[in-house]
From TrEMBL, chain A:
Transmembrane segments: 6-26, 38-64, 84-107, 119-135, 141-161, 182-204, 210-231, 252-270, 282-303, 310-332, 338-359, 379-400, 415-437, 458-476, 496-517, 598-616
Stored Pfam families: Proton_antipo_M, Proton_antipo_N
Record-linked PANTHER family: NADH-UBIQUINONE OXIDOREDUCTASE CHAIN 5
GO terms, molecular function: NADH dehydrogenase (ubiquinone) activity; NADH dehydrogenase activity
Cited InterPro entries: NADHpl_OxRdtase_5_subgr, ND/Mrp_TM, NU5C-like, Proton_antipo_N
Species of origin: Salinisphaera japonica YTM-1
Assigned keywords, A-Z: Membrane, Transmembrane, Transmembrane helix, Ubiquinone
Keyword Cytoplasm: no
Name used for this protein in its record: NADH:ubiquinone oxidoreductase subunit L
Compartments (UniProt record): Endomembrane system; Membrane
GO cellular component: endomembrane system; membrane
Keyword Transcription: no
Topology of the protein relative to the lipid bilayer: Multi-pass membrane protein
Domain NADH:quinone oxidoreductase/Mrp antiporter transmembrane: 137-428
Amino acid sequence: MSLLVFTLIFPLLGAITLSLFPRMSYGAARTIGTASVGLAAFTTALVAIFWSAAGGFPFIQTLWQWIDAGDFQVNFSLYLDGLSLTMLGVITGVGFLIHLFAAWYMVHDLEGKPGMARFFAYMNLFIVAMLLLVLGDNLLLLYLGWEGVGLCSYLLIGYYYETPANAWAAFKAFIITRIGDVFLAIGLFLLYVVFGTLNIQAILHAAPSVLAQGGTLANVAALMVLLGACGKSAQLPLQTWLADAMAGPTPVSALIHAATMVTAGVYLIARTYGLFLMAPAVHELVGIIGVVTLVIAGFAALAQTDIKRAIAYSTMSQIGYMFLALGVGAWQAAIFHLMIHAFFKSLLFLTAGSVIIACHHEQNIFKMGGLRKKLPFDYAMFVIGGAALSALPLVTAGFYSKDAIIWEAVANGHGFLWAFALFGALITSIYTFRLIFVVFHGEAKTEAHAGQGLAHHLPLAVLAVLSTFIGAMIALPLDDVLPHDMAEASHWVELFFEILAALVALAGVAIAAVLFLGSRKTVDTVVESHQGQRAWQLFHGGLGFDTLYDRVFVRPFRATARAHEKRDWIETIVNIVPALTRGANTGLAAGQSGRVRAYAMIMFAGAAVLLALLMFG
Amino acid sequence: MNELSMVYGMGLAALLFLLGFIGVVIRRNTLFVLMCLEIMINAAGLAFIVAGARWSSPDGNTMFILIIAVAAAEAAIGLGLLLQLQKRFRTIDIDAASEMHG
Amino acid sequence: MEFTFFAAGIVALATTARVITCANPVHALLYLITSMLALAIDFYALGAAFAAVLEVVVYAGAIMVLFVFVVMMLNLNNETVAREKSWLRPQLWAGPAAAAGLLLLALLWALIFGGIEYGGITGEELAAREVGMNLFGPYVLVVELAAFLLLAALVVAAHIGRDDTDQVSDAAARGERVTTNVRESR
């Protein structure tokens, strides 16, 4: 059990080693980077076995006291329960597979270039920060990991920093998530003031007695935490950064922007669920945010030409489902979908990466086409991942996790949200199979060379297996951590709604087949019409949120700044300081005449003054 | 034996010192400046001698010997600088060497 | 003793005043030597015979000879004296003299009303032996420091006084500013 800390130590050692020897060969960097996460995954497996053998009670490993300032005491301690173990498994397991794939993928980028170790150093550091986030037993430690993953996300999005657009994308992601982080920090301050501690379990324990049900304090605190989660998880209104974050290498998109970091918001809300139970209005808002995001992101995904951006919008949409689950009180379903989503979305991203490499860094889906015959393995993997994403019935893992959420929505009496979620499911299967049909069917438009090697095949195969119903058979030890899902209805009603959801998913596939399989005349006609053009532009740009934020925040801010640039009384006050300094400089420089006799005179005057002071003072 | 008030000795030292100072400030010829510095150092030596005589202590004379050592060092370096000044600027005007102004 | 002290003191003051006002360097140097001899008499009157001898031998004898050498090297002539006179304008005197007067007042104030009880000076002679005992007894470290100072002065004088005329003329050939005749050409 005390092995728990080693899940942190291995990647940390990897990151440090890789940072200290930046000029090591690619082979060495790849081995160290992958092996450290592999060891962490192995340790996680051992910890999971020991933990369940010991009865599955929460386990706290205190490493040292971090802060001890008066009443404010924070321990550096790790907290292991069913929820953090689930996250631990996802992060190290999926993380290891993605590292393995990255070892294959990055050869095409990195071999022989400087900074080969940098990529794996960042990736390992990310794993450390993410583990800290899920294992921290207090909110401050969680916040440390929270900022750490933000930093690594920034570094990895801007990994190809020679291209200015990538650096701007990194800035955008960093700044927008930072807005959310500020809200989270305010939330932490508030919680500390109210509870006098930042220990999560202590806060959850004390919440019902300290906070009034639906009181202002509870609402504000929960809202701050929610906004923090929105920033990290790319939910409305802070969702605009995720699509641009695809500037990073594809394994990064798979690891950070699909499987782990973006789901940190879901983890945070699930972790502090007691707070949201005390704030029903905000709790309701979680579900609404999720639904709105999932529909908006679904529409945006419909109109993407870049394969990675399309998958990024689908990630946003799927996290919207998780938020919906949290909002309707289906805590366990949210975490379950988080895990399944990590499987199939990293599968999709890695396959996309494989396709991109095969087509020589081509990301535009309309320049691919007909890859089914040349890349049969990638085709199979993408179909499995896409089917899981669309939640095709019975054989896919997504069916069990996503339809559970949709069912919980209606079972908990949120019919309105349910309708939107079902509509979102329809869009999901349309855009997913649009991708499949455009990329892999139709006439071939480009040369393609299939990826080779174990590091390429193994991660995809493992993730593909986990994306089928086999992955859905993993039972998560969440019963002691999160409340039971409350759905109470007859078996037949549930069956009816599940069949309905399955039919919707299949309908989406059929619509996509009609629209995109074959000549695509219907779509072309619609898109080329005037209204169609405008709608396409709107969807393509993520429904204009970037433009909206630019108009509402950026431009007024810059206009104000420019208006006050010249005539600003604060600046006038500030300018006194340099004016004084400059004046003093002029005076002193004049005294520095270079004439020795003048200096002697000044010395003499000083001596006279001193003597006079001594005598008469 | 007749006694001499210390004030006269010290007053003489102060007068010599100030005369030396006035010379340092008003003369532009470096040679004169150096001579006036010698006067000032001498005045300081006189003050030590006077104080040593007042308290019948050998410390005053000891310090005077040290002051002579300082004066010798100062004169050697000062005259060396004077020669360099003459060599480079073809003048011994001390204000000519005023390039290090602010 | 008192008479000797005051007489020599007046001579010292008068010759010093001439040093700072004299235009001819050689004359000024002679006045300076006279002033030092007068001071040596003062030392003797105060009972510091050893210091008086040192003043004559080392100061007036050795250090002043350095000045004489330098005066010889400077090729002084009537022109120099004329320029010296032009530099000694009366309005230059006002500021420093006023400041010096102020400081003199302060010093005298300190001497007379400083609150320290000043006794008399008997002029009892101090043996050179005592000075030597003192120097190599409690002050031996200071003697070491003086030795260091003289060594450093030796090195510095050797460095500054070195003959690098070639470099200077080279620099002049490259057009760099090493000679300024502005003052002299006036």
